[in-house]
Amino acid sequence: MSDDSHVQVTPKDENSSLSLSKVRSGLIARGRRDAALLLAVPCNKCGERKDLAFAGCVCTSCSEALDKQWASSTATDWVLIAKQLAEEDGERPWYAVSVATRLSVLKLMESDLEQTKRGSETTGVPHKESEAQAGPVAVPSSERKQFWPPLGLLASRSPDAESGELPSGEELCRYVFRGTTYAQMKLHWAKSDSTGSLVIGEALPDDRYKIDVQTIATYLNKVGVPPEEVEEASEAQVDKWWEAATEGRTNIAFIRPANPEEIGTHNALLRDQKRHEPIAGILEKWGFDSRGIPLAGSMDDDEWKHRGLQAWEEVRRTFEGLGLLKGSLFDYEEELRANFVKYDSVARTSTSEVKPT
């Protein structure tokens, strides 16, 4: 009877080699995964280095979060909140004003000037500023001639297309997309891509607030800050979190359905686009650039006036033929003419009173 207690099992060399091979393979695979994470492009939205499951730039969690919010929406008109693009040469900025606004500002300045004059008469302190200096539109000067009509205003925005805002420096603008599904809009959101849209103004305060909340929440979740710590955090600590959350981020974007007012502004901008398309060709035909300045520097004053009137009338007929005359600057033609005549006469009188030295 044999004694099994002394039996020993010795692994064969080939089994030992196989085990070592598996260990090496596991280490190599883990090293590759770690290297891949280090080299991976971070998600456009949360900044995490994860598998980019959507559009090659957004991780699964961020993609699913947006789907949860908007995937069931049947909206076809959307707004993308994203950083403002650099303006192209000759492009009118989104905050460009209409002729109506120019005239309103002029009236306010005239009113202020009149009040200042009345105050001077009461106090006995002379008022030194002339009306010619105060007039902001269509005032002739020795450096640049001005003749009626003001061709440089032809490409002004219509009142309905004005944003009614001035840039605040936030750099986040609203881009409107029409006839667009959520699936299409999601691609624009993923890449912060405003291609195919029109900018109608800066982001609304509510938009900025939602973007800020979303940004800081994503960051705090990433670094593992518990809710109770957030509630007790000082303002200085919140500022530090915000700086860390936004550092290096260039793809800030937010989407939502467009509201009726934004759709109305977009429609007005489309009408303006149709108005402005033929203007450059008409001005060039009559010898002017887009600012209403003669292309040929040798054009005399009489020819300038004659050609300017011909260009002005052709633009008017073109707008009428397109059904776009109403709502254009021609609605304010008589007021523009009256102001031009007024300031032209004031400027000429002021110039004639200057004695040569």
Question: What is the topological layout?
Answer:
Blueprint: H1 13-39, E1 52-54, E2 58-59, H2 60-70, E3 78-83, H3 99-123, H4 131-134, E4 172-177, H5 182-191, E5 198-202, H6 205-223, H7 227-232, H8 235-246, E6 253-257, H9 260-276, H10 279-285, H11 301-321, H12 333-352
Antiparallel strand pairs: 1-2, 3-4, 3-6, 4-5
Helix pairs in contact: 6-8, 10-11
State the gist of this model.
With 357 residues, the chain is of the alpha+beta class. The protein has helices at 13-39, 60-70, 99-123, 131-134, 182-191, 205-223, 227-232, 235-246, 260-276, 279-285, 301-321, 333-352; strands spanning 52-54, 58-59, 78-83, 172-177, 198-202, 253-257.
Describe the structure.
The structure is a single chain. Helices cover 50% and strands 8% of the residues. It has 357 residues and is an alpha+beta fold. The chain has a four-stranded antiparallel sheet with strand order 5-4-3-6, with helices on both faces. Strands 1-2 form a two-stranded antiparallel sheet. Strand 1 and strand 2 form a beta hairpin. Helix 6 packs across helix 8. It is elongated.
**Integer-rounded radius of gyration:** 33 Å
Beta content: 5-15%
**Mean pLDDT across residues:** 80
Rough outline: elongated
